[in-house]
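User: Endo-1,4-beta-xylanase 1 isoform X2, Nicotiana tabacum:
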Amino acid sequence: MKRLTASSFARRLFKSNSDHAHSQSPKENRENTGSYDAVNIIHNHDFSEGLHLWRANCCSAFVVPAGSGYHKGITEDVGCSYAVVTDRKECWQGLEQDITSRVSAGCVYTISACVGVSGAFHGSTEVQATLRLVYQNSETSYLFISRKSVTEEGWQILEGSFSLSTMPNQAIFYLEGPSPGSDLLIKSVKITCPSFTDYESSRPTSSCTDDEKIIVNANFDDSLYSWSGRGCKVVCHDSMADANINPTSGKYFASATDRTQSWNGIQQDITGRVKRKQAYEMTAVVRVHGHNVTNADVRGTLWVQAADNLEQYIGIAKAQVTDKDWVQLQGKFLLNDSPSKAVIFLEGPPPGTDILLNSLVVNRAAKPPPPSPPVPENAVYGVNIITNTHLNNGTNGWFPLGDCTMSVKTGSPHTIPPMARDSLGAHERLSGRYIAVTNRTQTWMGPAQVITDKVKLYLTYQISAWVRVGRASGPQNVSVALGVDDEWVNGGQVEVSNDQWREIGGSFRIEKQAAKVMVYVQGPASGVDLMVAGLHIFPVDRRARFNHLKRQTEKIRKRDVILKFSGSDSGCLLGTPVRVRQKQNSFPFGSCICRTNIDNEDFNDFFVKNFNWAVFGNELKWYSTEAQQGNFNYRDADELLNFCYKNNIEVRGHCIFWEVESTVQAWIHSLNKNELMIAVQNRLSGLLTRFKGKFKHYDVNNEMMHGSYHQDRLGKEIWANMFKKAHELDPSAILFVNDYHVEDGCDTRSSPEKYIEHILDLQDQGAPVGGIGIQGHIDSPVGPIVCSALDKLSILGLPIWFTEVDVSSKNEHVRADDLEVMLREAFAHPAVEGVILWGFWELFMSREDAHLINAEGELNEAGKRYLALKQEWLSHAHGHTDDQGQYSFRGYHGSYEVEVVIASKKITKTFVVDKGDDALVISIDI
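Assistant: Predicted structure for Endo-1,4-beta-xylanase 1 isoform X2:
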């Protein structure tokens, strides 16, 4: 195996000894930048002062004086001093000098070193020049400069160049490389910089053209030039693993090796090569290599540092990568602000696993052509696609999945399950027959049908059935699942117990052509009999549902208003022209925002114009405000709060605690029970005292239906105590529970029934639960299923908020339809008092293909639909006053402006329509 190395030899991470450093001050260095073209920045470059300012790295060194006759393998008489580096046991051992204060960011430096070798080796060996760079957080990287193949026959000139886009805390230049046991000989070293004028004309700037290459040496044609290790070593190869690993393109690839942390990897500084508010796409070809590791997650990440030294890590892409083949890692990123430093790197696999990189390219993200709205051919809404649903022909059309037994029996319900009654088309009563599945030895065994030819792309299908289980030791989960080629799709889940028939409902949509689609019912434990009756799968007519919701909205979101005009200038008001315009609907529509968003003025403009509530994505979470114990960071939250207050935006507090174990920061895991209890109390008192009165809501303990970290360690009463203490510290805030998959029928852990039990249990313990949060991360939403969940939860009499709504589809038109379903269902339900979207701007959302605005600020179809609904929910009216000087209309709740014209004088007044059942009479003095 031939290795081409940028840091070619195994090297330790060590602290440099610079006690003897003697150089210009940083100030002097900056002032003299323009005269570097004739100045060698290496002090004692010819060893005329012995080893002054030089240091041997974990080995020995001495200087051979001129004319001493000691040539250590050099045949000719050199006639000058030179250094001998000996007792070398590792390739990386050599001679170094600290040059930190003598180099500047952006300058291109050239190196010329006269070197030789002596020792027990055959043929030639390599000598290499390297820079070790140490940054503020003690992160160390290595920058390869040049390499030279050297023999014992004479001196060789090692030449190369380097530049630093930003300054590290420490820069150490050193020579290394010959085989262990051989001596490295150094006659002289010279490092110079071209003129300042040349530097200014060649340095990268933030105004780079779109065609400029952002990644330098993307295919490693120049070995490891411009690449370095992020806390590890990087090596360039033409092949490895006995030639079993070869580049898939080009001649070379790189490996990040000697990785001791998951964040170690290969990196390149791209400062000044990317612009703010422009979308970029990274494409990397990667694989992994290591003992006992066959696959691992590899992530592409961008680290940026702002002018005020605040740091941010931006996730670009993530892929499961194997040790068998090269895999493409692809993703996008966007910068809202212009950073002082930007570094792109690969990370992710566990320590000890090498990351292999064949190529990495960053380009301006291409804008895809606008999609067309899908128009399914011959769509027949509300018509069941399941064969022999009523089992009139026995089990014809059905088959058992797995080695189980099917038979038809009688005794099931005759009525269609409630969630399907409003959306299923013309239908007959159920037959009372059901499929009984026995001899089940696996949970996935049950009745199945292939429906490949009956499913149409982009249609949203509703699933409905009655299910029951036989005798079992406890509650059993039953689900309707779909096998779409090799993908499993959840079509709905329900928990069944007490030998009763239960309704199961769900939905699905297929957006790419599948070779095979199979539906099957599964779930109970092996040995438990499964019964299924009246399985229906049918496409839903969303437009018909929307018409129904519009009528509902008219009833609950509007109020009759009588404007009663009076005043000295009123005179005879009969027939006076009146124009009413609603300025803002009072219903809360909000969005998730994060600190970096508000650096983008386009983001701010859309947000302030179209939302009246906000929630912070991460900035208030415990792992953000106290990542290390006792080290608090409220700066980001403060800046977001100030932004919202300046723009009259109300704010939800998300969240005080998060009950899912994987979200709990490392230092909390190390606490014992008493220490954890103290930490919880400190979190409550610290957060709620600091922000008292500033957040209208708090999600007290996020996702208690899906986690129990604090309860497992502190006891059942801790949940209620969190609510009690939070209310004591900030009585003005409404305290919410908050969870996901409540509204879509696909998770038995957080079904509406389970959520109700959970809330009642908290209230029984004295917890002042003031609101119900439904997150709303939903796929292919179906109105009646969402509405059913809301109806069930509304019996508690608490306000319901959709707190984190996002819908996802690659086709913007389908995404717009999904969003409309969620917004109309929420707006038409009397128990819902607000909707918060979990973001709206591309690349700043937790789900892909969920955005309303593309990365560079273009409104897509989903965004247009949102604005159209907002406009629809504003009331405008015009007409004339009656003989009593009154004008009546029915309008949405919110703020209004009325304009009347009397005696050629235009008069404008404002008023507010709030909730109420009776007509609102507003007296307006003109």
